[in-house]
Automatic annotation (TrEMBL):
Keywords: Aminotransferase, Pyridoxal phosphate, Transferase. Its cofactor is pyridoxal 5'-phosphate. This is 4-aminobutyrate aminotransferase. It comes from Meyerozyma guilliermondii (strain ATCC 6260 / CBS 566 / DSM 6381 / JCM 1539 / NBRC 10279 / NRRL Y-324) (Yeast). It holds the Pfam family Aminotran_3. GO terms for cellular component: mitochondrion. PROSITE patterns: AA_TRANSFER_CLASS_3.
């Protein structure tokens, strides 16, 4: 298995790669604007009318503005009125290589893609002659250390739910031993009753977000509006550390907080869990919940507890994965003594699924982990190209470098505006950076002011602002971003 996308890089090499990265961005997007281009307010009259019309047939109430994807390029998103905004939100962290990347355009026009799109296969029953190679050259080439297998899915929620199913089925198989299903199990499960319907559960953390399907929504804890009126499984949640910043000033307090959370996690497992917890799921950074971080020591503690109690550890890398944090996978920052059992992915890969290492996580009987499509070969082709571009242009190391540059500049900037921005976090985590506004109203004003000046940016949690630029984001883009942020804060 190739591991070149995970290689470590010296500081000198990172500096060298940063220069190469700049030339990559300029060569791939030679017509990208150097600064935002504004013709009207955002949204403008054309976009406003289009959005009004769209509302007649589609729920558009969450729309920021109507986008012209034909004219979006690189790090700049275009709206229907021809405005081009520096985009550091990138479709909620799901555009890896920038808008209209030529390498992705090339594969999109290939015979491979045409065949995959018009003959979308039921993969579990009719896999294509080239599907193994497509996976090995792409999704599996980028597999996290210790992972050798993958199950492909459609969305991040789907990836998490299929990982849940794998955990439930293997835990039940281990409890059952060598025997087959008995008659009582076969009859009771058709009534959604035990023993055929499992009483096991998935443990998640407070403020987590793992998706909006029924199982994934039961593990989501970030906002009430996500969960209201939807039936939920009575699954347990554990506290996630609430760290204080700057980290160097609160080392003892943060260590105590993480120890408290680890102690409560184990208490929940042996208490409320009653031996029924099949798996635990955790994000390396709680993204939708407010960009909440924890130390590598905390996550090692979580891993130790899962191993002690025979609980599978699922790491949700749907938003953190694919190079954004200066590692291909964010959990690589932890240097765990034992790899997690499963790692889920989606977003920047524009494909979805979960990696695993224990072959028994593939159920013994066919048709148990199954749906019509089981992912999509066309998305696997896109993911393959993304891996190739990241590897060929050293974008993991380059993102680490530009992230350091951006973090240091923002830290200096926020010292000038202490009442407007605090708790900057994401140091040494690539461009996966966030900070807090004083309150939600202040954040809303900040985001709208940034948009008015040509930056598309997003929030998360109660009052956090998060950065999710593409991997084609370099120091010149960081300078533009910081200049506009300073301008906005100076006017607030």
């Amino acid at each position: 298995m190739l591991r070149s996308v995970h290689r470590t890089t010296s500081a000198a090499r990172i500096a060298q790669l940063a220069k190469r990265y700049s030339s990559y961005a300029s060569s791939v997007f030679p017509d990208e604007p150097s600064v935002p281009q504004l013709k009207t307010e955002v949204p403008g009259p054309i976009g406003t009318q289009l959005n009004t019309n769209l509302g007649d047939v589609f729920d558009n109430r969450a729309a920021y503005f109507v986008t012209d994807y034909y004219n979006s390029i690189g790090n700049y998103i275009s709206d229907a009125d021809g405005n081009k905004l520096l985009d550091v939100y990138m479709q909620i962290a799901s555009i890896g290589l920038g808008y209209n990347n030529p390498a992705l355009k090339q594969v999109a026009k290939s015979d491979e893609m045409t065949t995959a799109l018009i003959n979308r296969p039921a993969l579990a029953c009719f896999p294509g002659v080239d599907y193994q190679k497509v996976l090995e050259d792409g999704i599996l080439k980028a597999a996290p250390p210790g992972m050798t297998k993958v199950w492909t899915a459609t969305t991040g929620s789907d990836a998490n739910e299929t990982a849940f199913k794998a955990a439930f089925m293997l835990q039940a198989a281990r409890d059952r031993g060598s025997r087959d299903f008995n008659q009582q199990e076969l009859i009771s499960v058709m009534n959604n009753e035990a023993p055929g319907a499992s009483e096991k559960c998935i443990l998640s953390f407070d403020k987590a977000f793992h998706g909006r399907l029924f199982g994934s929504l039961s593990t989501t804890r970030s906002k009430a509006i996500h969960k209201l009126d939807i039936p939920a499984f009575p699954w347990p949640k554990a506290p996630f550390p609430a760290l204080k910043y700057p980290l160097k000033d609160f080392e003892n307090e943060n260590k105590q907080e993480e120890n408290r959370c680890l102690e409560q996690l184990e208490d929940i497992i042996v208490g409320k869990g009653k031996g029924n917890i099949a798996a635990l799921i955790v994000e390396p950074v709680q993204s939708e919940g407010g960009d909440n971080h924890a130390s590598a020591s905390f996550f090692q503690g979580v891993r130790d507890i899962t191993l002690k109690h025979n609980i599978f550890m699922i790491v949700d890398e749907v938003q953190t994965g694919v190079a954004a944090t200066g590692k291909f996978w964010a959990h690589e920052h932890w240097n765990l003594s034992t790899p997690p059992d499963m790692v889920t992915f989606s977003k920047k890969f524009q494909a979805a699924g979960f990696y695993f290492r224990d072959p028994e996580l593939q159920p013994r009987q066919a048709y148990r982990q199954f749906n019509t499509w089981c992912g999509d070969p066309s998305k696997a082709l896109i993911a393959r190209t993304i891996v190739q571009e990241i590897e060929a242009n050293n974008l993991v190391a380059a993102t680490a470098s530009v992230g350091d540059y951006l973090f240091n500049n923002l830290s200096s900037l926020f010292e000038k505006y202490p009442g407007h921005a605090s708790n900057i976090r994401g140091q040494n985590m690539g461009t996966f950076i966030a900070w807090d506004s004083p309150n939600a109203d202040h954040r809303a004003k900040f985001l709208l002011a940034c948009r008015a000046k040509g930056v598309n940016i997003g929030g998360c949690g109660e009052a956090a602002i998060r950065l999710r630029p593409s991997l084609a984001f370099n120091e010149s883009h960081a300078d533009v971003l910081c200049g506009i942020i300073e301008n906005v804060l100076g006017e607030m």
